[in-house]
Design a protein that fits this description.
This protein has 295 residues and is mostly helical. It is built from twelve helices and four strands. The chain has one domain. A two-stranded antiparallel sheet has the order 1-2. A two-stranded antiparallel ribbon has the order 3-4. Helix 2 (67-78) packs across helix 12 and helix 6 crosses helix 7. The longest helix is centred in the N-terminal third of the chain and has 27 residues, at 2-28. The N and C termini lie far apart (43 Å). Mean pLDDT is 86; it is low at 1-37.
């Protein structure tokens, strides 16, 4: 009996030591000095992959179609008022009190999508803004091409503080996400739930800032849907990621956290010139890590 007690005590002692070391490596280990801490860099050497112009964060090889989405991510990384102002310039308030979203400040088309609006609302909420006025003013039809979905409608109201809508969102989204997770892990079809949608869902869960079991359940499902190397999704879904893992990430030519092996986008590392300013994929990852481990 005494031997068993001593053995149990020794085991608990060793467990405490090793668990303490693990926490230390993530929270109290190497202190990150992220590029994000420099804030928005207005410089542009002519080859910089991501650059600031006209209130928006641009990508060198793309048109303005994803500017609201990209600028929302940049605002999360840099928290610069100029980026917030750029996002707000993509909105147009109508006489009836409703709001119309556009992909960029030029407002030259009406094809804004759910991911653009979701990232805008997530960025505003994470920046400390009360999003209720945007939620209430958003019509079901977002643009000529896209409309809200029932789960996004509930998520928006949950983000605005409606607890009943938040519960309904989880009850609707958990079985949907679980079905897609099982589908992604099967060999039934080459068609998979897209990585960009997994990335977006992770932001939606994170932006709710909700410690409930329902949130944790959905978060675990999302992580299983993502690539094992997707550190941003892991962080957004409250999974452990070490500081050295974050530091080792190098910027790529596309936002790598919404791409996977099934994506028809060829990812490569940025050249030194391309990565001189505003490496958003790295900066967002480091900013979220710092937000979580700010103590």
């Amino acid at each position: 009996m005494l031997v068993k007690k001593i053995g149990t005590i020794c085991f608990l002692f060793l467990l405490l030591i090793f668990s303490g070391n693990e926490v230390s490596s993530q929270e109290n280990g190497l202190k990150l000095t992220p590029m994000a801490s420099k804030g928005l860099l207005l410089n542009d050497n002519g080859k910089t992959r991501f650059y600031f112009k006209d209130g928006m964060m641009w990508e060198r090889t793309f048109d303005e179609g994803d500017n609201l989405w990209r600028t929302s991510l940049a605002f999360i990384a840099y928290r610069d008022p100029a980026l917030k102002e750029g996002m707000l310039q993509c909105l147009e308030w109508n006489a009836d009190g409703s709001v119309r979203y556009y992909r960029s400040t030029s407002k030259n088309d009406e094809t804004v999508s759910r991911d653009q609006v979701s990232m805008f609302l997530s960025a505003m909420a994470l920046g400390g803004e009360d999003v209720k006025k945007y939620v209430k003013a958003t019509k079901w039809r977002l643009s000529k091409r896209y409309s809200l979905t029932p789960d996004m409608w509930l998520w928006m109201r949950a983000l605005g503080g409606n607890k009943f809508a938040r519960t309904l969102f989880y009850l609707m989204e958990i079985p949907i996400a679980k079905t897609y997770q099982l589908w992604n892990n099967s060999n039934i079809s080459k068609g998979k739930f897209p990585a960009y949608a997994v990335h977006l869902l992770a932001w939606q869960v994170y932006a709710l800032n909700d410690p409930s079991n329902l949130n944790k359940t959905l978060s675990r499902i999302i992580v299983k849907m993502a690539e094992k190397e997707n550190l941003l999704v892991k962080l957004l879904c409250d999974q452990p990621v070490g500081s050295q893992q974050v530091l080792n990430v190098k910027p790529k030519n596309d936002f790598q956290w919404q791409r996977d092996r099934y994506t028809k986008v060829s990812l490569r590392y940025l050249t030194k010139e391309e990565a001189e300013f505003n490496t958003i994929d790295v900066d967002v990852l480091r900013a979220i890590y710092e937000d979580i481990h700010h103590d």
